[in-house]
Amino acid sequence: MPKVSRESASLVNDYGPIAERREDLADTAVQLLTAKQDLDATPLMKGLPDGRCSSPHWGNVFKGRLTFDCGDHEEVFEAGDSFYLGAGHIPVSSEPGAEYLQFSPAEELQIVSETIMRNAQAMQEPAGAADA
Description:
By secondary structure, this protein is mostly beta strands. It has one helix and nine strands; from the N terminus they run E-E-E-E-E-E-E-E-E-H.
């Protein structure tokens, strides 16, 4: 039986505001995530359909509070909550220190992750560097 823990995850990434430990089990990405600072991810979603996350997620919040803009309403998840987020959401706030487990379709999550990384890198480039 495949499994993953914080210690055994093969992908460990520190994206600044979010630390991720990830393992893909079959077609499902399992992420153990820690928010290191509050983050509105709206600018990081640029280029995705409607500028929103295009992957669904299922998960559980262990510690802290997370807030998502779901278009026509806002969802708030706190420690002890299990959740489902359909495609079309944006993480708009994450309490520093929040910890949660998230399951997502691996292929769909990869597209979102690549878009977020491109946008994050572009935001860190000095003005005009991309034009050089």
